[in-house]
Structure formats: C-alpha cells, structure tokens
Amino acid sequence: MTSRRTSRLGQQLLREISLKIRYSVRDPDVGGLSVTGVDVGADLWLARVYVVPSGSPEEQERTMAALARAAPFLRSSLGRELHIRRMPELRFERDDSIEAARRIDDILREVLPGDSQGKAPRGGQAESTES
Fold it and tell me: Is 102 helix (H, G, I), strand (E, B) or coil?
C-alpha cells in the first residue's frame, strides 16, 4: 500500500512542480528545463525531483542552483495546496538518464549494421524485388 501511495504522490508532485516552476518561480536564473520524474521516499521525508536543464553547462549550473534556492518556496506552496500531512523536502537532481541513453544509442549504431547500408533484414533473407 505504501509504494502505491508514494507513487501517486510522486506523480502528483511531478505535475504540480512543473507548473509551479513555469508560472510561480520568478528567479531569472531558472532557465529552460524539463521535470522528468519525482521519487518520494517511503517515509515521505524526502522527494528527489529529477530535471533536465537546457542551455550551456554554465546555464545548467545556474539553473540547478536557482532550483535549490527555490525549493523552500515550492515546498511551502505545494504543502498549502496539496493538503497532505507531511510535505517532503524537495531535492533537485540532474537526470542523466537521457544522456546515458543517447550514448548507448550511439554505441549501438557503431556496432550494429544498419538497414541503410544495404544489409539484409533480420532473418537472413533479402527482400525480393521481382513482381
């Protein structure tokens, strides 16, 4: 039951945090970003908010610092609106899973033969062009 509750709370926090960052946080250092996930601890004391900041590495660092500064505001604002007994502390972390998936995809493209190189499709038989 607890994991279902934390999962539901994580999904709700994902939606609400995304909206709050977009419309309520007025820090100019919060640049473009995507909130990709929220993991709420089983004890509801901590919520890890995974984000993918955009821009140069310097802009990304400024965005992460600005999110850390905005975390208390977001926590108190969400606590008033969501009516939950204990609003978890928000920790913003960079989500590197997209970059890792991109690296894996690049490696697979180098290793596996592609259809555009004239290779036979799976199954070892080439398509027949005769009619």
Answer: helix
| Amino acid at site 57 | P
Q: What is the pLDDT of residues 59-101, one digit of tens each?
A: 999 999 999 999 999 999 999 999 888 899 999 999 988 888 8
User: Cβ distance 9 to 40 under 8 Å?
Assistant: yes
pTM of the model: 0.76
For residue 46, the cross-strand partners are 89
Cα angle value 87/93/95 (rounded, 5°) = 125
So what's the pLDDT on residue 115? 53
Helix (H) or strand (E) holding 110: helix 97-111
Write out the E strands in 1-131: 33-40, 46-53, 89-94
Separation CA 14–CA 34 (nearest Å) = 10
Q: How many CB atoms lie within 10 A of CB 11?
A: 13
Q: How far apart are CA 46 and CA 72, in angstroms?
A: 13
Whole-angstrom distance, CA of residue 68 vs CA of residue 63: 9
Q: Which residues pair with 34 in a beta bridge?
A: 52
